[in-house]
Amino acid sequence: MTTTEVESVNRRGHCPRRFSFRNKPVKIKALLAVLVYVFCGQASARTLEENAPVARDVNAVFESKIMVAGRPQVTEWTLRRTAHRVEMQEGRNGTGEIWSRDEKGNISFERVFHKQRRVLDYSAADLRSLGSYPEWDKIADVIDPQLLGGALKHVGTTRVMGKTAERYRGRLGSTSMEVTWLPQDRLPYQVKQSGPNQRTELKLKQLSAVTPTSSDQDSTASYTRLDYADLGDDPSDPFFKRLFETAEHQH
Q: What is the pTM for the complete model shown?
């Protein structure tokens, strides 16, 4: 079992983390590296929260590249976003994350292992107990809107994929960052980061609308599932048992 498979699982208090920056500033997570999730200060007058469109239902394919010691690590991953479901899947390791919101507004999380056809479910209560209950808009937006126009200053516009895009630039600690943002789709077209000993780049490769047929499909419907709350109760499934034992050992 790899570190990637267990990094978000722990018997006591290790919360599921969004990929990648929102919980830890300027750190790229291996799972679905390079989306930008940074908590920052209050945004300036030019914040995307003002008059921003609702995040559209989209299918998107991204490529992320991490340069470490001159060696590139390239990963392709997909995003499917609808009004009540945000699903990410990383191609190389076959892992993914699904965030869902029910009719009452409660948010749940699924840690997906596609190769093993397994899902670890976190209920809204689990997320709250772990201190990891998110704001839905920040999940759907991919990038924290307060980052754009706040820590990153608006520096102009450009055209990409036949659309008008906004350009932002700034520093987050010791890391410089550039974002090309598609405001109508509420998605990044490109994110570049450069810091000590590491450079990263995220680029949007494909973008399409979610059709009624595709939006209703559940890619994990036939998978074996386990509730996070039951992970520590000596699960009988061999994969979940190894997952728990490895997480306990690392903890």
A: 0.73
> Of the ranges 73-87, 195-209, 229-243, which one carries the lowest mean pLDDT score?
229-243
C-alpha distances (whole Å) from 128 to each of 79, 163, 226, 244 are 25, 39, 18, 21
- Report the C-alpha gap between 77 and 152 in whole angstroms: 25
- What domains are defined for the chain? 3-250 (2.50.20.10)
Please name the helix (run of DSSP H) or strand (run of DSSP E) that holds residue 206, with its range, or none: strand 198-209
Q: Please answer whether residues 183 and 168 qualify as being in contact, where contact means their C-beta atoms are separated by less than 8 angstroms.
A: no
Cα of first residue to Cα of last residue in the chain, in angstroms, is: 15
pLDDT tens readout for residues 132-157: 898 888 888 777 778 899 999 999 99
Q: Phi, psi at residue 148, to the nearest 5°?
A: -85, 115
